[in-house]
Amino acid sequence: MSRAKRALVLAVGLLVAGLVPPAGGESVRVGSKVFTEAVVLAEIATQALRSEGLAAEHRRELGGTRLLWNALLAGEIDLYPEYTGTIREEILGGNVAPGDEALTSALAERGVRISSSLGFANTYAIGVRERRGASLGLTKISDLARYPALRLGFSNEFMDRVDGWPGLAARYRLPHRDVRGLAHDLAYRALAEGQLDATDLYSTDAEIRAYRLRVLTDDLGYFPDYRAVWLTRSDLDGRFPRARAVLERLVGTIDEATMIALNARAKLDQVPESEVAASFLAGLGVSGGGATPSEGLSARLLARTGEHLGLVAVSLLAAIVLAIPLGIAAAKSRWLGPLVLGLAGILQTVPSLAMLVFMIPLVGIGAQPAILALFLYSLLPIVRNTATGLVGIPPTLTESALALGLPASARLFRIELPLASRTILAGIKTAAVINVGTATLGALVGAGGYGQPILTGIRLDDTALILEGAVPAALLALAVQGLFALADRFLVPRGLRLEPTR
Fold first, then answer.
1. For 126-151, what is each residue's pLDDT tens digit?
2. To the nearest whole number, what is the mean pLDDT of the chain?
3. How far is CA 325 from CA 333, 343, 412, 441, 457, in A?
4. Could you tell me if 335 and 500 are in contact, meaning their C-beta atoms sit under 8 angstroms apart?
5. Confidence band, pLDDT 50/70/90 cuts, at residue 239
6. Is-contact 155 187, C-beta < 8 A?
7. Of 56, 145, 324, 444, which residue has the fewest beta carbons closer than 10 angstroms?
8. Distance (Å, rounded) from C-alpha 301 to C-alpha 450?
């Protein structure tokens, strides 16, 4: 078998390995959104299931409401904590009759079961700094209409939710135009530093008390009831008969004060969510689930580096296998060239986060959507540079090869590709560096890598944790550039590396 064929087989094998979930025993998969309370509740569920001898894994910080809901419907997760108001207004679009029975029935039609309340409600609210609220006389949401120059900043999800800003502005006739979307946790900091005048709050957030915020009364009753519940797949009973009983034992055990205290331990005291959950369960007399032992910095870096390298290497190698032939075709065909480059360019313009979400219905969550998205992003630089390198070969050289009677395949592999190798290698290097940076977004769909500590650090307002992901990602990008500089010496013909004499 030739080297080219062996490389092709290896690339296809790695791509398949990256897209096929690893074999192993089935477990209950618990999902959580990207905010502290969701992570804590998911940890409580995961450890409670383990305490009964059930295999359970926590797929943490997977994104927002829609991503978790779609993952539940697709069978990528088995359960996650949610809120009744979010289910009724955002997930089901407000097309459900009032009452719990109608909500239960609507979810059952979609293969989902809802539990009773966990014991508390986490209601949306609008908050301002206490001093600012007192100086302006702000006590209720309708008071905001008197001050159209106020700077409002809401979480990105709230900006577009059915029960979010558009409906709130319409109900209260709010005239504000300086309205920004940003991460929920960053909004608190911006509010505390005076960069914002008002933001959306979760009523059980520990930051409300820590930052001394004033919660404005919802005087027109815009926000619905947001009782915390478990959403589970209906087929969970058949696969794990004891799981639902474990979850039901948690119903009614968490009141509002308890949830605020749990959030404060995780967010303000920087206690790992697994420890917070273990302490809560111990208070209920539940033991055996066990908090996940904290890893040292070196162990975490090693694990994240392996995950990140896997995402980059598999996607890049698969892209090389496809993009170089496409680049050759683009260079050889006048009608195919613009089509191939145009399609690759369109893929490059799709926002990274949107691309990841688009991949989930195809391959689920985890490393698979990240690898597929990175693969698509890698195509354009390699295709373009391959085509450019081949088109840029002086015609006299190709004509000489033709005059010697060399067949097309020999001209391609012995003359054209070697002459274009430096340009092709530059395209591969560009794709590799792009992949290293873009792969950090894979953490939003459970792919791990350096994006995981960055994501968690932003949520916990922990600069050290952010740097734990950002610095290695930057160093890896530099290492990739150095590796390709070394590869240039071995893969590019020596004559092409020589500087012209003057």
1. 999 999 999 999 999 999 999 999 99
2. 86
3. 12, 15, 11, 29, 41
4. no
5. very high
6. yes
7. 145
8. 8
Burial class (CB in 10 A: 0-12, 13-18, 19+), 191: buried
Write down the residue that tokens 């004033």 correspond to. 214
Residue 327's SS3 state is helix
CA 390 – CA 234 distance, rounded (Å): 56
Residue range 145-158, pLDDT digits in tens: 999 999 999 988 89
Residues in the chain: 502
Q: Which residues contact 275 (CB under 8 A, 6 or more apart)?
A: 291
Give the pLDDT score at 5: 47
Amino acid sitting at position 261: A
Residue 181 CA neighbour count, 13 Å, CB half: 9
Furthest-apart CA atoms within the chain: distance in Å: 89
Q: Terminus-to-terminus CA distance in the chain, angstroms?
A: 45
**pLDDT > 70: what percent of the chain?**
90
pLDDT of residue 292: 59
Q: Is 99 left (phi over 0), alpha (psi -120 to 50) or beta?
A: left
**Beta bridge mates, 58:** 30
Residue range 18-57, pLDDT digits in tens:
444 444 458 999 999 988 999 999 999 999 999 999 999 9
Distance from C-alpha of 21 to C-alpha of 11, rounded to nearest angstrom? 17
Angle, nearest 10°, between helix axes 297-332 and 3-19? 130
The burial of 315, by beta-carbon neighbours within 10 Å (0-12 exposed, 13-18 middle, 19 or more buried), is given as buried
The torsion angle over the Cα atoms of residues 264, 225, 67 and 102, rounded to 10 degrees, is 150
Ordered DSSP codes for 81-127: EEEHHHIIIIISTT-S-SSHHHHHHHHHTTTEEE----S-B--EEEE
How is residue 471 written in tokens?
Answer: 């610095």
Q: What is the mean pLDDT of residues 418-425?
A: 87
Residue 348 near residue 380, CB atoms below 8 Å: yes
